[in-house]
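Thread title: Can someone regenerate the structure for this chain?

I was given the following input by a collaborator and told the matching structure tokens would be attached. They weren't. Posting the sequence so someone can regenerate them.
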Amino acid sequence: MDILSNLPKTTQKQSKRLGRGYGSKKGGHTSSRGAKGDNARGKTKLTFDGTKIKKSWIKRLPFMRGKHRLLSQAQYKVITLDQLNKWFKDSDTVNLSTLAKKSNLSVNDLNNGVKILATGKIEKALTIEKLMLSETASSKILAAGGKIV
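Best answer:
Regenerated them for you:
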């Protein structure tokens, strides 16, 4: 038979319930938030910097010229020579459609642009069509016996 003093302690102190009326000790009129102001009313925005927002916060942003400066820049998908070495056999052609089949990327992901970087080694003679290459990647592909169209 267990003695009550040997039982594990499972009690936790409850947090004070604010704003639940005068009978709850913490909570009548202002619920320990003070009288007025932003702290009593709720959260303020991170960008709020007083009333002169145009002169302070916007002026601190970097000035970028051009009409399309707010559009997101296209991100290239990076493919290395190691990946090409794994995915393709000797004398295969590498283009957007064959890359979409061999890799897990969709054609829509690859339409933003693909760049082949010279990370790793390539031992297969591949023909590469309509893809961007770094200079060292193109020299490694040509040294392995491949073609760039």
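DSSP finds six helices and six strands in the chain.
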